[in-house]
Design goal:
2 strands; single chain; Arc Repressor Mutant, subunit A
Length: about 160
């Protein structure tokens, strides 16, 4: 039987964590995309729509639809930019904060369930290794792909 690869295992773990989170989150009546908007916006209040779309790695038109629904529900508000009327700045409403707390609670429950039999040291090591991997990939992604292909062809 072929051995699992790191990429597949990481993908499966992330997918299953999202699935478990969503099972718990259904009670709040938000989609995963709406949860992601709330989470990013809570860290970047006052950002404009294009900036938030870039952070979420989605198209602006997709974000506009999400924001419209969330504004109708009273979770976010758009405010005019002080000097540029074309820009809308995004803020959470007071009604969004209880949902954020709920989201953080079920996120913590999901993390605890995921790491149930890990020691504190194993948890720290895993996080350290994953952060190193992320750093390596960020560096690699900043390089033109041609360089990587040349290296692979010459040395592979």
């Amino acid at each position: 039987m072929p051995r699992s690869t790191l990429g597949f295992v990481l993908h499966d773990v992330a997918r299953l964590m999202r699935k478990r989170f969503e099972q718990r989150a259904r009670a709040a009546g938000l989609t995963r995309s709406q949860w992601q908007v709330l989470a990013k916006l809570s860290m970047h209040e006052g950002i404009h729509q294009k900036g938030l779309a870039d952070l979420l790695e989605i198209e602006s038109i997709t974000l506009v639809r999400l924001l419209d629904k969330m504004q109708e529900r009273g979770l976010i508000e758009r405010r005019s930019h002080a000097t540029d009327r074309r820009l809308s700045l995004l803020y959470l409403t007071p009604g969004a904060h209880p949902l954020l707390e709920f989201m953080r609670t079920i996120g913590e429950q999901t993390r605890l369930e995921t790491m149930t039999d890990f020691t504190a040291q194993e948890h720290d090591h895993l996080l350290h290794y994953l952060e190193r991997m992320r750093t390596h990939l960020l560096t690699a992604c900043a390089q033109p792909i041609g360089d990587a292909l040349e290296c692979e062809v010459k040395h592979g």
